[in-house]
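Running low. Any example?
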Amino acid sequence: MKLQTACLFLCLLVLGFNSCSKSKEPEQIRVRKNVMSLTAQEKADFVGAILKLKSTVSPYDSKYSYYDQFVRWHYLAFYCMNNMSNMQHGYPAHMGPAFLPWHRVYLDLFEKALSEVSGKQINIPYWDWTDPASLQTVFAADFMGGNGDPMQNWTVTNGAFRKGNWK
């Protein structure tokens, strides 16, 4: 249990270290909108920022793109290990009390990175996954792309994140 706590602390420290504002100016309040109320420009800005994050070298580790650095952090927090053969139960970023605080810091850093690379204020939208209209908005060609072609093993075939355009 002590190792698990240490892993959680390390993950939050790594992610939270850069979230401390060095500026004396108060941070602008960020408002997350429902995906159904995003304008076409806001959707394009969000998608463009993700693409830019994917094509920008991570400031933390140059062997990753900035986007892939977030993937790596998430992976590491999910698989904090006691040793190479004994994975801990109750992963720091999932399946325990750290789920909400860990992801709060993680998404805060992700939003800041999107804004940094795009030069625009980018906020992650939310959606109601139980509402079919909301899901149609998320999985449309002008946003995240379709939900996949069952004849192609559910490969996304349209939008900016389609097969061949997104690695």
Remarks:
- Residues 1-6, 17-21, 83-88 have pLDDT under 50 and may be disordered.
- DSSP finds five helices and two strands in the chain.
- The longest strand covers residues 81-83.
- Residues 2-16+31-126 form a domain with the di-copper center containing domain from catechol oxidase fold (CATH 1.10.1280.10).
